[in-house]
Sequence to fold (495 residues):
Amino acid sequence: MGRLLTVFCARPVLDDRAHGRSRCQAPLPVVEVTSRHTPADAEVDGALEGPLPRSGVGADGVMDELTRLLIPNGSRFSDTGFWGFITAGPTTMPTVAGTAAAIASPQRYSITAFNRVEELSLEWLAELCQLSPRMKGVYVSGGSVANLVALGAARQWAFESAGLDPADSGLDGRPVAIYASSQVHHTVQRAAAVLGLGRQAVVEVATDTRQRLDPTGLAAALRDGDRAGRLPLAVVATVGTTNTGAIDPLRDAGELARAHGAWFHVDGAYGLVGILDERVSAAYDGLELADSVIVDPHKWLGAPVGVAATFVRDRSILHRAFAQGPADYLEGSFVRDGDIRSSLDTMGIPYADLALELSSPARGVMVWAILRELGRDGVRARIVADNDLARRVARLAGDHPRLEALTQPQLSVACLRYVGGDGDPDEVNERLLRRLQRESPFLPSATVVGGRFAIRPCFINARTTPEQVDDFVATVVRFGDEDRTAGHGGAVVGT
Ligand SMILES: Cc1ncc(COP(=O)(O)O)c(C=O)c1O
Fold:
């Protein structure tokens, strides 16, 4: 264990930005590790192929291969300039906490300190995100499953209201509708498919010029759905859309959901914690109308991948939707008379019946570690700093004659593009993105804004600095200028 932590903490990219106050304190030997662009190294290629070994190399051999072959050739997601999608390497404390839990409390059930912080951290997370104290949560593996669980609750509620228990007897084939903006994360469509509602149940509503759900369009879609006899299962609003970080108008969406008898779900996988930035918190007005809310600590809070939470007003609906039902191998193993004396006398809060997993890691300890380490103020400082980075990119791009800012960021996503070339700007910027990813320390991803290809950095990486952001913008300009010199449509210099 000690050795494994040494390896984790020795990775320089696990040093977090100074205001995060989360450097490894222990005097650990420094192993110089930098991620290569691809694991094309001949040594790696040879070593990571071949048949199942007949006899093992032992723990020392595995440690050697981990440190020599795998860790140095890991993903660039932990690089300080990684700003793609909505993901980044985790910070140190939750990584250590998760590793500790894997050993000290490998399952979240049974009465342990880890089980206690599962609930405590959910309460803290709800408070951090300014949810009503009535909202109770459950951890799952990520935003995909968190949305699925929330929409599973919505399905249960909608069909129960219509006199049917879908968890017990299945669906009755009646047409349903889930209303969301065209910018909604596509895990919502997948959840609809998995829940037996069909992807086509998701009705996409147009957005305004800032990529936010248009309430007039939503009202019209709900009216059309009602007229067509579709059961209004849910309205989904997003706080922090994946493409541009837009925040949908929650009050309008929530009130329309209420008026049409639909469940109101808020997908805050990325942006729920953005409420901490007082410059944008007014945009979260109406959050209290939500019947369910999700947030991914493995995004902006810096937890290792595998931690999201679904919050609902009343966890009993999750139980009705997801309980496994009594089983001798479980119930028979715990006390029946309430006389709890040892950790194995009970499973504790039955999280296993509130979502999809029986076996599950204790995830709350990672969130607990983040919130213990930073407190609300430390988290807020990170959120504000990241939003500043996106605004900085937008300002620099807006001020530059050969760049265009495609959005005015609400949160920490910026969308820009080079417009000084002669060719099709979409093609130019696609080439620039490839070059950035292959040749520079900056790793944004892309999106399309209003039909235009955009280079899209999303700042949730606790180790990014404003100087890097300035360098990034300067690099986009340089690559763009070189692309023009090379002759658009021809080979890009260096690729
Ligand atoms: C708004 C939103 N919802 C849901 C998801 C899915 O989350 P995950 O990747 O954790 O499954 C994402 C992922 O980026 C997201 O941005």
About this structure: The chain has a mean pLDDT of 91. Residues 2-75 form one domain. The pocket of pyridoxal-5'-phosphate is lined by residues 86, 142-144, 147, 185, 187, 238, 242, 267, 269-270, 296, 308 (CB under 6 Å).
